[in-house]
Amino acid sequence: MHPLPSQCPICGGEVVVTRINCRDCNTTIDGQFSSRTFSQLTEKQMDFVETFVRLEGKITHMEKELGYSYPTIRKLLHDVIRALGYEPGGDEISKLSEEKRQKILSDLDEGAISYDDALNQLKDEEK
After folding, report:
1. CA–CA separation, 127 vs 118, rounded Å?
2. Could you give the CA distance from residue 92 to residue 77 in angstroms, rounded to a whole number?
3. pTM beyond 0.85, yes or no
């Protein structure tokens, strides 16, 4: 069985589920049905979410499993959050610019600063 596409393969538009069929009794229902939120994710994003859940959201485990750096894991997570219609950190009021945050995470990824230094810089900028 194929996964439900989140976009039309021809024009990229939104797809709508119009038929539901029960495999057991062969009942078919026609109409327009909203799809679940996660159907908006790409296959790559869904694989990321499944790994994230399986590893209980532990980013250090994600780094080892996927072979990605901390900033890359965060970026992928933010991509998923945005695909679900939310803005990462949207509940928080932050004074930290995206550019400054990216610089800190880049420095961490390159080994220019330690994890603790990055965390302290991020906290200091939030004040």
Report:
1. 15
2. 17
3. no
What is the C-alpha R_g of the chain? 20
Catalogue the E-assigned strands of 1-127: 17-21, 28-33
65-124 pLDDT per residue, tens: 999 999 999 999 999 998 887 888 765 545 677 788 888 888 888 889 988 888 888 877
Residue 63 · residue 69 · CB < 8 Å: yes
Residue 61 φ then ψ, to 5°: -70, -35
78, 71 Cβ separation under 8 angstroms: no
**Residue 99 domain-assigned (yes or no):** yes
Structural domain total, the chain = 1
Question: Any bridge partners for residue 21, and if so which?
Answer: 28
- Examine residue 31 and state whether it is found in any structural domain, yes or no: no
